[in-house]
Amino acid sequence: MTRPLFRILAALACGALFGLGLALSGMLDPARVQGFLDVTGAWDPSLAFVLGGAVATMFVGLRLIRRLPRPAFDTRFHLPDNRAVDRRLVLGSAIFGAGWGLGGFCPGPAIAALSLGRPEPLLFVAFMLAGMVLHDRVVAPPGTLAA
Question: Which of 35, 50, 95, 118 qualifies as a cystine partner to 44, CB 3.0-4.6 A?
Fold first, then answer.
């Protein structure tokens, strides 16, 4: 097999594992996410355990990356360079959080939930994609530094 094919298969395996983890943890159910965000009502703490597991896994992964010369299927690791907390980051995070709270989905679980055949994730993904296109064409058109 060629190196590009290995990259595609590795990405497919990682995506499938991520989707399976989301499904097993119940994160494809927007009511569970909204229950976690409803701290004054019927609070559901299960998302805290999912988030804790994700943070622990990423912590170990970043430590492993520092010991490796390069990834298995690429020439270098692609880690973010920008560490600035600016107005655009805070505003984008607020918009993300509002959408997450209102819809009960964030991008990964929404895409995984498309496999359930329900209309809610389809509607969410359609609006998510529309927002991405709007951002790329209006907020940060090609050739600008705001992308």
Answer: 35
